[in-house]
Amino acid sequence: MIRFRLNGRPAEVDVEPTERLLDVLRDRLQLTATKESCREGDCGACAVLLGTPSGDGVRHRSVCSCLVPMGEVEGRDVVTVEGLGAPANDWVRAALRDEHAVQCGYCTPGLVIALEGFLLSADRFTREGACAAVAGQLCRCTGYASIRRACARLADSASAEMKDPPPPDSAARLSALESADVMAAGVFARTLETPAPGVSNASGASGASEGDSHETWIVGGGTDLLVANDPIPGGTRLRFTSRDEAMHGIRVVDDRVELGAATTFEDFVRDERLRARMPALAAFEAGVASPPIRACATLAGNLVHASPIGDAAALLLALEAELVVDDAGVGRTIRLDRFFLSYKRTALPPGGRIVRIDFRLPAAGEYVSFEKVGKRAHLDIASVCSASRIRIEDGSVVDARISAGGVAPIPLLLVETSAYLVGRTLDADVARGAMRIAEAEVQPIDDVRGSATYKRRLLGRLLLAHLLALRPELENELEMFS
Amino acid sequence: MSRSDLELHLAGASRFVADLPVPAGTVELAILGSHVAHGIVRGIDLESARHTPGFVALLTAADIPGRNQIGGIVEDEHLLATEHVHYVGDPIAIVAADTIDHARAARARIVVTVEELEPILDPRVALSRGELLVPSRTFECGDVDAAFARSRHVVTGRVDIGAQEHVYLETQAALALPTEQGGIRVFSATQSPTAVQRVVANVLGIEMHLVEVEVPRLGGGFGGKEDQATAWAALAALAATKLGRPARLVLRRDDDLRMTGKRHPYSADYRLGLDADGNVLAYEVDFVQDGGAAADLSPAILERSLFHATGAYRVPNARIHAQSCRTNTPPNTAFRGFGAPQAFFVIEAAMRKAAAACGIPVVELQRKNLLRERDTFPYGMRAERCLAERTFDALDTRFDLAATRARIDAYNADHRLTKKGLAVVPVCFGISFTTTFLNQASALVHVHQDGSVSISTAAVEMGQGVNEKMRLIAARTLTVPVEHIHVASTDTERIANTAPTAASTGADLNGHAVRLACEALHARMITFVAETFSVPLASVVAQDGRFQVEGRTEALAFADVAGRMFRARRNLSAHAHYATPGIGFERNVEKGRPFQYHVYGTGLVEATLDVLRGTYVFEALRVVHDAGATLAPAIDRGQIEGAALQGLGLVTCEEILRDSEGRLLSDSLATYKVPDFRMAPAEVEVEFLGEPFPDGVYGSKAVGEPPLIYGLAAYFAIADAIRAARPDAGLEDRAPLTPERVLMSLT
Asked: How far is C-alpha A54 from the geometric centre of its chain's CA atoms?
């Protein structure tokens, strides 16, 4: 039995914790405003707001309900379009209506949810912020121009009619939204009055009882868990890192960063302390997933999944990250560059789990850069991604760590390329030499994301992009762009 | 009060087929498709599936009581394979279970033994082996050989354009409910209710009057549900009939991607001849269309490629040859534009090559050769009310092409790592089904005794706003406020013998029918009021939902008149039929007037190329479009913007990939990428030309498909930027121009 609060009312459904929230909404509860389309987090049609306790309030994030297992919903708040009240009293719907940003209507509920999420959680009511909030919603009808206009209208009216920046505190923000008649905030306000029914901080496994023969899967966000179209084997126990307080939070002590295993991509890219020292996080944010996926997916989950094109793996390899692993109650540290053994196989001991990801912030003279190219610039899996951390002193490279994804069975640290750069001055010859080594150091394959030849060539170009970021004058020294 | 579709969508209250409540006992279906591209089925082993949880039944071709045939134009397509399978995903059996997960789990356990045959996956190979779906066709005008002989410049080339998946966000869906007398009621997400009705009747071996097909609305169609919604509806109907219980078939995205056809890939060879001044003298093109495993709509799509081969240009001498080839992929099908985008792509590529050969800027060459009034198309029709030059010039006036080019050249001179590119594409698109008999529609309009109005037509609402346009037309004709007009679902019991909602004609054909029905009703109401007050007809003025009788101070409300008419036993319902006048085409000579009219427009795309990474972004899409006197500017603007982005996706990021065995590799939205919010051009400007079209519904013109062609400019804008980066880039004309192809051409 899973208990939670749905559209402000207590709900209870007798389902396995492995079932999808989307299926429960549509099939069990007949709430069909939330649409199924891709069933793997690529389109946003199934977006709902998921409320989790945060500080004194509740944080409502737009998530893809097709990827959220019911175990994650226990003790939480869920709001669907049905819970938002009449469209007449709602600026989000007014903006979409006035700009005619609705055609077939199938993506509309997801779009509404994404924009309500923007009103509930944006730091500022900017046009760009509203656009960012809907950037993960696919629409095949409008060409997005009307959606962009609706975003502008919503942001403009919200910032004109309300205090901007809005109060960060959820209760204050909700009452501001309510009193300005921006939205019927009641359904959200209820989430503050009383906690949602169900066990809100259950850290243990849910599903079949302990002691039976079923497997326990540790779920770090779960955005890859339900991507496969077929259900998770019955009886599988799920243990959610999000439920474990100890796994939360990003600690920054001097130059050391400790990412709790429950750190989501959104937590990571939003952290001002990290952004200040690593401007490359902006490129990372732009290149990685959509807002509803970033809201759930964790960096630790991305590492354990061990996909050769994992974006977090590439970045963290360059950052020389170490993993703190809980191995049957014993803490161990594993260097990330020794973590990936072979295709989707890692050094994580059986039954073990990542507790923390540690790395240090870039030092003075040290630059971090992240590059990714796929078929589509955003919301795509990389053909090749690459990250670098390079330190330059007196014009020459004293330390270099360059990683790449999509060019080997595992996320790869380009050891030879990195070594080659050390001690050299970044000029055209060195750049060409590094590209040559990098292209020889990898073993990409032909697949749906590109030919092996392309991936090699692309890696060379991304490496060059890292170097150009350090030394823009290289542009004029390389005849390849003449 | 009736709310618009838009309001329903915003409230989350609109219902699609998969949202309809299902009766208790409904079985869920999954379709077992062939795992090989070509072969002979030798056996189906069901044993281990039979014992999976929730399993109900497996049905094969042997269970079909009627005909196992779903081909629309050519009878060459089975519903379920009997022996031969022709593509990966070719339906072999229906698996019924209590839930869709159970049906899929059971399906996974069925073992099908297939004797494999060699598949053909390349249309040119199919052509060399004589594997044509229908006989090839040729359009010819003028003296082509003589014109080439006197051409100063002759350019030749090969152009390839890949498949495109529809990615309607609502996947294929049907719910079938057995009715009395062995009949069936089908809720289907189809653009062609009557095609579904006809095929279901054939498959079940019953007459069409026992089959009712209802379409609530579609979550996008784009042509993908014109012919290819039919099979799923027929499979659901078959299961419901055989099992005697309701059956629902909603394809999951993976099945939908693997089992349905796409926009046709084309490969073409062309030759274009021009005089010394750059006037086009002759054009010869040979289209090789990849039709997939069955004819589906390919012959009609091929025909539209023939009609649009010369784009928006005046080509006095042309020879256009087209052939539809049979390959072992799912039958390719209708997709917005219907063979025209491929044809436009070829001639636009040819014009660019010709511009280089003549040493004339592309836009100058384009402008010089645009269609003018009374020019003759290769199929014999003349251009009337031709707006090709006017839209082109309006775009130039509004956005100054020369200044834009100068700005881009200056930018390119200043930048090495990024380059900008610009391309203009003029459009001339024929409106009417080229299969003449389809150009008909009917409408049934009831005025209820409370004055509310309901309308049924053949049109299917799929996001194109046809319901709202019908409301506007009815409101205008009946002179009542729009909120009193309700547009009902599309249902074959209310409107029979429907043409598909396709070919951009939905609002034209059904709008005329609605107008005719409403005019009849309105005339009856005026007559009734005049009779009631014994005044001449001219003394009754209808306005804003009221009837004003000259000399009387008080007006009669529309509802009041409706109530009085009901009590006076007057007919408050009207059915009207409309058939497009003046069209026809003689296929034996390939000449005629296939179109009621043409839509014109010109579009521009500006792109920036990242020379380092091989990626690109789009700065601007600017369009001047001829929509006649638009009925609903916001709807038409949305159609233009949306269609253009689909065209942009077609030539950039959307790439259908299959392996050497014919299995789809781009089989999810993770691997098949449609444009997202960030990929859309940062600036989108649409200007209407706004000239009323006298034969249109209140002066309007069709809008659905023509603007898709503007998106092709994205390809040529990137190519323009590539040439700025590397004048020697060996870029062949092949779409989509993915970042991979860009980088490979730059290095």
From this structure: 18
Q: Which residues contact A358 (CB under 8 A, 6 or more apart)?
A: A256, A257, A258, A259, A321, A322, A323, A324, A333
**C-alpha to C-alpha distance for B248 and A410, rounded to whole angstroms:** 42
Per-residue pLDDT of A96-128, as tens digits, reads: 999 999 999 999 999 999 999 999 999 999 999
Cβ–Cβ < 8 Å for B21, B94: no
- Rounded distance, CA A97 to CA A86, Å? 13
Answer yes or no: are the C-beta atoms of B584 and B590 closer than 8 Å: no
B740–A105 C-beta distance less than 8 A:
no
Average confidence (pLDDT) over A219-228: 87
Distance CA B633, CA B212 (A): 35
- Please give the radius of gyration of chain B, using alpha carbons only, rounded to the nearest integer: 27
The alpha carbon of residue B712 and the mean position of all alpha carbons in its chain are separated, in whole angstroms, by 16
Query: How many Å lie between the alpha carbon of A139 and the closest alpha carbon of chain B?
Result: 7
Average per-residue pLDDT in chain B? 97
Average pLDDT over residues A202-228: 70
Strands (E) in A328-439, as ranges, are 330-335, 340-342, 345-346, 353-360, 366-373, 384-393, 396-405, 412-413
Q: Which two tokens stand for residue B374?
A: 């009374």
Binary contact (A39, B101; C-beta < 8 A): no
**Cβ-Cβ contacts under 8 Å, B676 against chain A:** 135-136, 138, 144, 376, 378-379
As a whole number of angstroms, the distance between CA B62 and CA A170 comes to 63
For A24-74, the pLDDT digits (tens) are 999 999 999 999 999 999 999 999 999 998 877 888 999 999 999 999 999
Angle at B452 between CA B451 and CA B458, to 5 degrees: 135
Task: Give the closest-approach CA distance of B731 to chain A in angstroms.
Answer: 15
Rounded distance between C-alpha atoms, residue A225 and residue A301, angstroms: 10
Least CB-CB distance to A145: which of B166, B612, B684?
Answer: B684
Tell me the per-residue pLDDT of B726-747, one tens digit each, with 9 for 90 and over.
998 878 999 999 999 999 999 8
Q: CA-to-CA distance for B324 and B291, rounded, in angstroms?
A: 6
Q: What's the whole-number average pLDDT of chain A?
A: 92
pLDDT of residue A229: 64
Tell me the average pLDDT across A127-139.
97
Strand pairing report for B184-188 and B211-215: parallel
**Whole-angstrom distance, CA of residue B552 vs CA of residue B539:** 10
| Long-range Cβ pairs for the range B381-384 (8 Å, 24+) | B381/B592, B381/B593, B381/B594, B381/B595, B383/B428, B383/B598, B384/B597, B384/B598
Residues on chain B touching A461 (C-beta within 8 angstroms): 612-614, 743, 747
Looking from the CA of A117 toward its CB, the CA atoms found within 13 Å total 32
Query: What CA–CA distance (Å, rounded) separates A479 from A482?
Result: 5
